[in-house]
Each structure stands twice: as C-alpha cells, then as structure tokens.
Design goal:
Elements: H1 26-46, H2 71-78, E1 82-93, E2 96-107, E3 111-115, H3 122-128, E4 139-147, E5 152-153, H4 161-167, E6 168-171, H5 182-192, H6 198-211, H7 215-218, H8 231-243, E7 249-253, H9 261-274, E8 279-283, H10 287-293, E9 296-301, E10 304-310, H11 311-316, H12 321-327
Length: about 325
Amino acid sequence: MANTLEPRPRNAPSRTEPRALPARDGAAESAGNGAAHAHAHAHSAANPADDDSAIIPMRPSGRAMQFSIDEARRNAALGAPVKARVEALSFYYGAYQALKSVSMQIRDKQVTALIGPSGCGKSTFLRCFNRMHDLTPGSRYEGSINLEPEAINLVSQAVDPIEVRMRIGMVFQKPNPFPKSIFENVAYGLRIRGLGSRLRLQEEVEKALRAAALWDEARDRLHSSALSLSGGQQQRLCIARALATSPEILLFDEPTSALDPIATARIEELIASLREQVTVLIVTHNMQQAARVSDYTAFMYLGELIEFDETSKIFTNPGRKATEDYITGRYG
C-alpha cells in the first residue's frame, strides 16, 4: 500500500452499488449467520484481492447507521488543496513495526477521521505528525509526511521537532490544563513564542477562547484556576490553548472519550466549526462521531491503511469488505 490513496472519483464504480447496510436482530440474526458466512466465502473466492476474512475475526453484524450527505460541504472538501502528503510512512518501536507503509493525502481545512479497532495504529499515526514519538527511546520513522506548500518532511531528522510542534497542535484524550489560571493556560504558547505585550496577549487569549466557544463562560473568571472548570470546559480550554499559536494542523486523540454526552456534543460542534480555520485530524472509536464531524475517513487495521475516502462513501458504500465489516460492528 505504498501508493498514496486518494478518494475515489464521485462516479467511479465500487464493489457494490450504494445501499443501506442491512440490520439483523432476534431470530433473523441466528438464521442469517450461516447464509452470510456462505455469501462472504463465495464473494472472497470470486474476489481474492478483497478477502479479509483470513486476518480479521468476525461476529454478527450490528445495525447500520443513518447517514445524510451535505452536498455543499462535500463539494468544498473535494476541491480543497492538499495540506499534508503522507508517503510510505512506517514507524517502529524498537524492532516492533507499528505502522506499515501508510500513504494518504490530508486536505487543507477539512476534518479527517482515523478509525479502526484498538491497537490498529491510529494514535501512533496521529502522533507522527508532531513528533511525539521522539520522546520514546528506540523509535524511528521511515517514509515522509510532507507539510505543504513548503514540502517540509515533518519526520526528517533534519527538522527540529520544536518547530514542528509550533505548527501542529494537539489535544489529548483527557483534558490536561496546566495548574495555572485560565488566562495563563491560553497565553502559555504565546509567551514561549516571544509575545510580551500585555495588550496583545489579552487580544489573542480572547480570540482563542472565542474560537473554542469558551469566552462567554470564562470572561469573568480569566484569573481563576483552570482546574476549577468542568471536564468539558477544560477540554475546550485545551483546544483554545492549542489554537492560540495559530497551528496549521490540529490533532485530536479521542477528545471526547472522557466526557459526558452534552460536553461531547459541544466539542463535536466546535470541531465542525474549526474546519473554517485549521486542518483537523481526529482519532475516534465512535463511528457516529466520525460520520458527524469528518469530511474524509481513514480505516486502519494492524498498522496498515485499509481504506481512505470521503466519509460519505466510507459509511454508505465502502470499497473494501473489511471496512464494511468494521463499521457494521462485525469486529473491533
């Protein structure tokens, strides 16, 4: 899979015609299992290149999600320029190869979701973008992640990882505000960059808090401890802190997994709005979340990129059986 994957043209033929994937329950589930297995075996025999059953454990299908397509958003995504080109990227923890020649193109000011079962390499791939693995002894990269338009290889040893992290922000699974005031949390990166003017700091902090939809809740308590905020507010504060330095790409590693449904909905709305100003990559185990917030989706398994396409195609007409089986709950 060394060749760069690009989304299929809109009218390109696929393995199947667009359809709603069937749901099974009750007695129909047990009656259908044998027929489904026989059908899968026959399909694999006719299409050996698409046979994933030998490496992927299966269980009966769950219900398919409903999916609506925003054509205006889809057209904007299709016309977006490339922000990062991932070419034959492999990553090793010592002798263990965690990523295997992954190639894809990340579109500018679009949301790209990374999905797949635990241990498939999603977070490992995400953290290559800001060189987080450099802190792990024995780790090494092969291939490249070229940041456009300068074509800077982010994983090259000739590139300073501090410079990379200045251009690519990250929000982690659990909120991690600094034990400082709300204001100082957001101003931290700006101070490191040498911004000393109090007036400019105030302007930039307000701008970042507004972008993270936190200004109205925090404007009267900017000098209170960030730890006094709720979990959802703390996560939005971390997003504001990342946005303050005007990153070109913003990475999210399961940003809502530790939040309640209301806080999750607010973070999802925020991520959807951020596509207007920054390129977003998000790792998620939540299929519905990936469908709601992303323009493109990459499905990974055992360190390999199995399929990458428009989110609408991944969830309604996937090109690989392994992808269909995952999003319908047969494994993972």
